Amino acid sequence: MTVAIILAAGESSRLGRPKQNLIFNGKTLLELAVESVRKSECKKIIVVLGANSSEIKPIAGAFILYNKDWREGMASSIRTAMLEINDDPSVDKVIMMLCDQPFVNAALLNSLIRKQNETAKAIIASAYNGTNGVPVLFDRSLFSELLLLQGHEGAKKILKNHVDDIATIPFEQGGIDIDTSEDYERLCGLSG
Questions:
Q1: What is the DSSP letter of 143?
Q2: What is the rounded distance in angstroms from the CA atom of residue 73 to the CA atom of residue 187?
Q3: What is the CATH number of the domain that holds 142?
Q4: Cα 158 to chain center, whole Å?
Q5: Are 180 and 16 in contact (CB under 8 A)?
Q6: Mean pLDDT in the chain?
Q7: Which residue in 9, 62, 3, 28 sits closest to 184, CA to CA?
Q8: CA-based angle 188:59:171, to the nearest 5?
Q9: Domain total of the chain
Q10: Which of 31, 77, 99, 135 is spaced 20 to 30 A from 155 at the CA atom?
């Protein structure tokens, strides 16, 4: 079973308001992320909230976890989610994703799963802007390493440590993420 983990615990400090609530094409960024997972082959959706959690609208169909240690950085959110699923033997893959990549869709998520089934690689990453990143699928063999991440380390550290275990899926719009008001304004100019 594949579980999608949407990391949405950050405080959006550069934006100055919760990016999870920004509207794009009539839905919040968090709603869009959950909807993409819901339409995919993933069997469970975990959303990790932290900063601003009281301001973030509830999302039907997602299991919400609260990361009380969100100030530590992204690693704490990854650990929070992994602790929730680590003891469930039916979970053999996780897809880590963010809520601020509005062009993630079910087809991309399904491509990650299919590529892992075809290649048996432990990591299937999205490729954009000359790098490998999120959304990224991890096989169960790497769950223990995800649990060991600390501080502001995201899963990128694991990608660097397992270069030979990575296959990629092209995701041209993967570099479009929302960190500042200018990013959001540019995104709004793309809606349609």
A1: H
A2: 25
A3: 3.90.550.10
A4: 15
A5: no
A6: 92
A7: 28
A8: 50
A9: 1
A10: 31
Closest CA to 109 of 30, 40, 168: 40
Give DSSP secondary structure letters for 161-183.
HTGGGEEEEE-GGGG---SSHHH
Q: Among all chains, which residue has been given the structure tokens 């995104």? A: 187
* 8 Å CB contact between 38 and 44: no
Q: How far apart are CA 4 and CA 191, in angstroms?
A: 25
Dihedral sign for Cα 135, 106, 176, 59, please: negative
Classified as helix, coil or strand, 160 is: helix
Is the Cβ–Cβ distance between 105 and 4 less than 8 Å? no
H-run or E-run covering 64: strand 63-66
pTM over 0.85: yes
Domain extent for 25: 2-190
* 17-33 confidence digits (pLDDT tens): 889 999 999 999 999 99
